[in-house]
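User: Design a sequence. Structure:
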């Protein structure tokens, strides 16, 4: 992965390159950025630049033996850890290494949802288990083969369970010589404080709109108008932008599901609510979390439509039609609590809450909030 292949993030790239040139490579770094910002791609480009045999001024050469192996994700001194769905056949990351190479090569901005969809494991919990920690310790006990550094990239590091995280504390604090840990995650709240305290933080912001628009035009062939509209909806998330471009069926499913929930909750039709809960409970946990994120997006757009200049609202098709009808129900008296309840539901869903109980509770609360009077 070359730095030039990553959308935007010029300040972060400059900082990473400068740290290598100045010989200030911290042994444990945390690449913290929201979904679709390119944090995983940046970690890999950084690792490749460190290992490159013919470093250029601002990027890897892309042609040396090290870079060629990095491009294929087969460099012997590069190791990956990522969440898996634990089963008898799958205990650690290397059990699905071929699937990982295929998934990342197809999309360096891969999301956890897409990864588990590739594994056909949407209904299972994503986890980095304690057996993975033992495998990490084993790999890092080996000497380097070709590069100066052994590099361990841990993607979605917040998915480490407590046992796995605790086993890594000592090696994070006192790693073997020339060993580099690059942790990548979207939320530092889910990481143990003891892990955070042992890493150097690399904050990665959302992609700037102008950078995202340029990428959508050049890489995806969008017109400037379509690129601008897509970038607005994606909110700095390239993965979301790709989903919008491809008209991913999840977007249509989420809209239809949200419509059903709101209609059933407004007057609280028990039969309709239970039918909706059975439908969404039958989907995978990652899809349920994706729905909750989508609901937050609809709440935001509805509030903007009610209180902001409507010219800045850029929705399309069925979504725009629905939001225009739904926005009168979202106002100053209830929007904050809507957002609190959706965020709370997402928080508990990540902790393996019972989905039927969670969504039933949400439907009751939505009934109350939808019927609050608008402020005078």
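Assistant: Done.
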């Amino acid at each position: 992965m070359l730095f030039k292949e990553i959308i935007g993030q010029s300040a972060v790239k400059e900082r990473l390159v400068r740290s290598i040139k100045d010989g200030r490579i911290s042994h444990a770094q945390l690449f913290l950025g929201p979904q679709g910002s390119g944090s995983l791609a940046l970690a890999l480009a950084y690792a490749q630049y460190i290992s490159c045999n013919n470093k250029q001024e601002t990027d890897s050469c892309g042609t040396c033996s090290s870079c060629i192996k990095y491009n294929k994700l087969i460099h012997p001194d590069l190791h990956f850890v990522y969440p898996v769905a634990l089963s008898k056949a799958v205990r650690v990351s290397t059990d699905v290494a071929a699937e990982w190479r295929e998934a990342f090569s197809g999309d360096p901005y891969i999301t956890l949802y897409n990864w588990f969809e590739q594994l056909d494991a949407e209904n299972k919990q994503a986890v980095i288990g304690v057996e993975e920690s033992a495998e990490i310790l084993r790999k890092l006990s080996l000497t380097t083969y070709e590069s100066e550094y052994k590099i361990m990239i841990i993607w979605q590091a917040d998915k480490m369970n407590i046992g796995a995280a605790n086993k890594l504390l000592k090696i994070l604090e006192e790693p073997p010589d020339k060993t580099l840990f690059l942790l990548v995650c979207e939320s530092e709240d889910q990481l143990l404080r003891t892990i955070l305290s042992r890493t150097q933080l690399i904050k990665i912001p959302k992609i700037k709109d102008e950078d995202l628009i340029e990428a959508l035009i050049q890489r995806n062939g969008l017109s400037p108008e379509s690129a601008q509209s897509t970038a607005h909806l994606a909110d700095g998330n390239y993965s979301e932008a790709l989903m919008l471009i491809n008209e991913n069926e999840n977007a249509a499913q989420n809209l239809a599901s949200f419509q059903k929930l709101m209609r059933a909750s407004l007057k609280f039709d028990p039969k309709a609510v239970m039918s909706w809960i059975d439908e969404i409970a039958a989907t995978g946990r990652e899809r349920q979390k994706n729905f909750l994120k989508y609901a937050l997006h609809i709440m935001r757009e509805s509030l903007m439509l009610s209180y902001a200049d409507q010219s800045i609202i850029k929705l399309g098709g069925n979504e725009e039609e629905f939001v225009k009808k739904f926005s009168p129900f979202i106002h100053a008296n209830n929007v904050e609590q809507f957002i609190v309840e959706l965020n709370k539901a997402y928080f508990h869903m990540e902790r393996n809450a019972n989905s039927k109980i969670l969504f039933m509770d949400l439907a009751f609360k939505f009934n109350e909030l939808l019927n609050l009077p608008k402020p005078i």
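Residues 285-307 form the longest helix (23 residues). Residues 3-203 form a domain with the Rossmann fold fold (CATH 3.40.50.300).
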